[in-house]
Amino acid sequence: MTTAHQLHAEGLRHHLAPGLRALGLRGWRRTFALPDETHWLLLGVVERPSADRTSFTFDLSAVRRADWAAAGLPDHRPDPRTRYGLEVWRARIGEVLPVGEDVWWQVLPGPRWPLVLEDAVAAVRRYGLPELRHRAARDRDGTGEGYLSRAGLEDVNAALLTASVARVQRAELIAGELVLTGAWTRGDAVSRTVLEGVARGFLSAGDERYRTVRCLDTRGRELWAFPHRG
């Protein structure tokens, strides 16, 4: 009898990978890239095997090609399943689906197992790829008035890179608050600690235009707020 693990390997090779390439992605097995001149727009297959089934989902990430080249890392391209701190955006695909939460597809023995793979490819086509294109376009446009100069923002991001924390995409003054936006998640304690240090640095400057630093994820959701302690 064909096991779930064997079905998953077969499905990845003969169904999922060809389906993703038919959408315009380039790659094979577990890492794929959407062609773009300025950004690495990436999709990675994440697997979670168990005794009787294999579950999988996708990690998505967008990295500026110039940032990747400047970092001097040994790989030809980023791995979307690895956090480098260079990403302008990253997410699990479930975050961009209507459910807005983690989604895993399960490959189980039975006559309908290919439908799971078709559904996963459809999710990439309808939600994953449009979001990747949107994030790259938004990053290129540089929408929103920045609080820091580009050079100043790069100085902050260089410190975040040292701590393997995703970069600040935007720093804006909104209604008396300094709002930082980046590809962070609420459960990432390291990012929270490092960003609190960044926030305290901003607040110590005594800029009268704001007395609170707020951190948002790339979908505009509140993560943390750090008020002035004085």
Task: Kindly describe this structure.
The protein is built from five helices and ten strands. The protein has 230 residues and is of the alpha+beta class. The protein folds into two domains: 4-141, no CATH class; 150-227. The strands form two sheets. Strands 1, 2, 3, 4, 5 and 6 form a six-stranded antiparallel β-sheet that branches. Strands 7-8-9-10 form a four-stranded mixed β-sheet, with helices on one face. It is elongated. It starts with a helix and ends with a strand.
How do the helices and strands line up, and which of them pair or pack?
Elements: H1 4-22, E1 26-28, E2 31-34, E3 39-49, E4 54-64, H2 65-71, E5 87-92, E6 105-107, H3 113-141, H4 150-162, E7 168-174, E8 177-182, H5 189-204, E9 212-216, E10 222-227
Helix pairs in contact: 1-3
What's a concise summary of this model?
The chain is an alpha+beta fold and 230 residues long. It is built from five helices and ten strands, in the order αββββαββααββαββ. The chain folds into two domains: 4-141, no CATH class; 150-227.
